[in-house]
UniProtKB/TrEMBL annotation:
<dbReference type="Pfam" id="PF13527">
    <property type="entry name" value="Acetyltransf_9"/>
</dbReference>
<feature type="domain" description="LYC1 C-terminal">
    <location>
        <begin position="169"/>
        <end position="354"/>
    </location>
</feature>
<dbReference type="InterPro" id="IPR053013">
    <property type="entry name" value="LAT"/>
</dbReference>
<dbReference type="Pfam" id="PF22998">
    <property type="entry name" value="GNAT_LYC1-like"/>
</dbReference>
<dbReference type="InterPro" id="IPR055100">
    <property type="entry name" value="GNAT_LYC1-like"/>
</dbReference>
<protein>
    <recommendedName>
        <fullName>LYC1 C-terminal domain-containing protein</fullName>
    </recommendedName>
</protein>
<dbReference type="InterPro" id="IPR016181">
    <property type="entry name" value="Acyl_CoA_acyltransferase"/>
</dbReference>
Length: 354
């Protein structure tokens, strides 16, 4: 294995940025899996990454690495960037348009080369690659508010509400709700995308650019592949409930079982913004309890969702505790926009994370 001393000017010149080969991608997974695999084994973690790489969403994913050509499978730093559809409404037209954007994930630097600017070098090279064919990119910071902001990714709100079942024994499935299976979700996603376009079109003129990632079926199925794999490995079970909908079809949610953080994360709260989603949140709490997950988490809830969360606590006579706070310890949404002016990130929910 080549001995790279990246603080030496000559060695730095030899470092190359490129799309990864299959062997480099596997080497990057094996490297970052030391930190990210638990509670799974490293081999199961790598198998999960292979499964995710075969999803429809990941067909638009590129893996990038920094390496020395003298030892190409010795990874210095790596990341992945997945192309997604961004819905954009700006002053040029009241009709939302679709733009290509990237979601950046799995930024990891080999511990041997940390504190030498390698991640910054990787990301600056990545920006050049993405700028050639896209309008924006997003990432979710696990290292605070400043590092990615200095590189051009503006920090966005990370407000959240947690619903914590302190006494799961009193929980009962609410009336007026049906659970969604995976096969139900694509049709709801199709409807959701159209509703989101209408929402953007109806926003008042304010001189700002409003953007939202399309809540597509490919996006949701990526999450389902991820938590489904972990459910089999860690619990020996299949996930059957992928969300819930009101029986009148006015509102629905999808969720993700996060076995590492022991949370049921709502991917999306969708449908009629005036609909009462109390029963849907209550169904989510029951799902969390059945899987031994400590809480339900909703990102950036609007006033209606916040009020519904409070009603869940009231209807369960306090058996479900509701906590509103700001997430500062991880997954802080950050967006880089190539254009000018203020950008509002609409519907900044967990579905867009990857």
């Amino acid at each position: 294995m080549a001995d790279l001393i990246v603080t030496q000017h000559g060695s730095e010149k030899e470092i190359k940025f490129a799309s990864s080969t299959p062997a480099q991608r596997e080497a990057a997974w094996r490297l970052n899996g030391v930190s990210w695999a638990p509670p799974m084994s490293l081999e199961n973690y790598m198998a999960r990454e292979v499964a995710l790489s075969k999803t429809a969403l990941s067909s638009q994913c590129n893996y990038y690495v920094l390496f020395n050509p003298a030892d190409p499978e010795h990874i210095i730093s790596s990341c992945e960037a997945t192309a997604k559809t961004l819905l954009v409404r700006d002053a040029s037209s009241s009709t939302p348009r679709e733009e290509k954007a990237y979601a950046i994930a799995s930024v990891y630097t080999n511990p041997t080369y940390r504190s030498h600017g390698m991640a910054t070098r990787l990301l600056n090279s990545l920006k050049e690659a993405m700028d050639a064919d896209s309008k924006a990119s997003a990432l979710y910071s696990d290292i605070g508010l400043t590092y990615y902001a200095r590189l051009g990714w503006a920090v966005y709100p990370s407000l959240q509400v947690s619903l914590i079942p302190d006494d799961a024994s009193v929980l009962r499935k609410p009336d007026g709700v049906r659970y969604l299976e995976e096969s139900d979700v694509p049709a709801y996603c199709e409807k959701d995308v159209e509703l989101l376009k209408k929402k953007l079109a109806n926003l008042p003129e304010d001189g700002k650019t409003h953007v939202a990632f399309a809540p597509s079926a490919h996006q949701m199925l990526w999450h389902f592949t991820r938590d489904g794999f972990m459910a089999k490995q860690l619990a020996g079970r299949e996930i059957t409930h992928r969300g819930a909908a009101t029986v009148d079809g006015k509102a629905w949610v999808y969720w993700d079982h996060d076995f590492r953080e022991k949370k049921l994360k709502l991917l999306r709260v969708a449908g009629d913004p005036e609909a009462d989603v109390t029963a849907l949140l209550q169904a989510a709490v029951i799902e969390a309890a059945e899987w031994g997950l400590a809480k339900v988490l909703v990102w950036n809830p609007d006033e209606g969702v916040s009020a519904s969360a409070k009603r869940v606590s009231d209807r369960t006579e306090g058996a479900v505790r509701v906590v509103f706070d700001e997430r500062l310890d991880g997954s802080i949404p950050s967006l880089r926009w190539k254009g000018e002016g203020e950008v509002v990130w609409e519907d900044n929910e967990y579905y867009a994370w990857c």
